[in-house]
Amino acid sequence: MPRTFTYTDAGVDREQRAESKKALTLLEQTYKHSNFGKIIHLPYGNVFQLNEKMYLDLVIEGVGTKVLLAQLANRYDTIGEDAVAMAVNDVIRSGAIPLALSDNIHAQASNPHLVKAWLEGVAQGAREAKCPVVSGEIGDVAEIIRGISEGAGFDMVVASVGQVAEEKLITGRNIKPGDSIIGLRSSGLHSNGITLARKVLFKKWGGKYDPDARIDGLYKELVLEVLKPTKIYVKSFLKTTEKVVVKAAVHVTGDAYLKFNNLTRYSPGIGFEFTNFNPQPLFRIIQEAARQLGLTVSDEEMFRTFNMGWGFAIIVAREDTDSTLSVLDKTNSEAEQIGKVTDSSRISIRHEGKKLVLQ
Predict the structure, then answer these.
(1) Average pLDDT over residues 272-279
(2) What gap in Å lies between CA 177 and CA 161, rounded to an integer?
(3) Contact predicate 301/6, CB 8 Å
(4) pLDDT of residue 2
């Protein structure tokens, strides 16, 4: 029988991460030092008061082991787009408009050719997000950073700060059964679940294929398909918030559809049912590669780990569904209704004739 293979087996232990995150409560004692006012807890972060009417949302995000794929492909000019996307897509969840970006790159060596390529990606992401990069840092830390290509090891994070008026905060409250979940199409894997994907796809980590493999259904070599930059949703989402009351926004990243569970702390008694998926071929290839290696990546694990075709989600009242889709259609977002809020207290997926319950 094939052996089950999970994100934990790949090296990312969800239970350990959840236990570790309990230590974040230690930071709450610092809230007393907020100089301007209160700090508001939101489903996916906090905002802090700048003045009587305005709040700031500060996010710092990285691209994780996707940097290893950049090295495997010897392609470095897109990874900065991922770093920007991960930060600004998080900032907008509160309704905030991104104001500025800052990048931090730890490098095995600050090779001028690589630095230029890294920053080309950051600049492209910033243009897409319409947000200036106002500061940054590159540190040479060869004793810490080791990559898979000699002298090319690096890690990249980007911080973004955004601004939102208190009356426009998206709080995740007042979500009700029957509300619609609108999905915005992803470009592919984005920057999540990469550790699992690497270990079943690429021979470098014990997987099935060479990086330049050509596989039916893919338009490019495999490594370039996996390396596609994370889509940036700033313009389309903020345009939507101008026209429609958004109850919640979810950046479908780590833990994928399990992330919706955060919303139940702000709107108790709800669950989520997802019924509309058309994943890019790459997701099927991950499962097939695992099978050929004698492993099973279950359908449930796929939806706990990957975006499965939808990179961002918006929850609106049922009566606002059509107007939301109309706005998003004008921004070329490839948006569709992908599910609805229920009273089941569960996260369920209906896909390819199966009903999956994630929790």
Answers:
(1) 97
(2) 33
(3) yes
(4) 58
- Mean pLDDT across 105-130: 97
CA dihedral 238, 304, 13, 229 (to 10 degrees): -50
Per-residue exposure over 30-54, b if at least 16 CB sit within 10 Å of its own CB, e if not: eeeeeeeeeebebbbeebbbeeeeb
- Least-confidence region, from 4-18, 86-100, 328-342: 4-18
Chain segment 175-210, per-residue pLDDT in tens: 999 999 999 999 999 999 999 999 999 999 999 999
Closest alpha carbon to 275 in 301, 252, 259, 257: 257
Cβ contact 338:182 at 8 Å: yes
* pLDDT tens-digit map of 118-160: 999 999 999 999 999 999 999 999 999 998 988 999 999 999 9
Q: What are phi and psi of 189, to 5 degrees?
A: -65, -25
161 pairs with which residues across the strands?
58, 100
Nearest to 74, CA basis, from 141, 136, 149: 149
pLDDT over threshold 90, residue 282: yes
- What size, in residues, is the chain? 359
Is residue 243 exposed (0-12), middle (13-18) or buried (19+ Cβ within 10 Å)?
middle
| CA distance linking residue 231 with residue 256, whole number of Å | 15
The model's pLDDT over 4-23, given as tens digits with 9 standing for 90+, comes to: 999 999 988 888 988 998 89
Has this prediction a pTM greater than 0.85?
A: yes
Q: How much of the chain is helix, strand and coil, in % rounded to 5?
A: 40, 25, 35
What single letter denotes the amino acid at residue 39?
Answer: I
Q: What is the CA radius of gyration of the chain?
A: 20
Neighbours of 261 (CB within 10 A): 17
Strand locations in 29-132 (E): 39-42, 45-49, 54-62, 97-107
Question: What SS3 state is found at 253?
Answer: coil
First to last CA, the chain: 25
Which residue(s) pair with 139 in the sheet?
106
CA separation for the pair 221, 210 (Å, rounded): 9
What single letter denotes the amino acid at residue 332?
Answer: N
Mean pLDDT of 218-234: 97
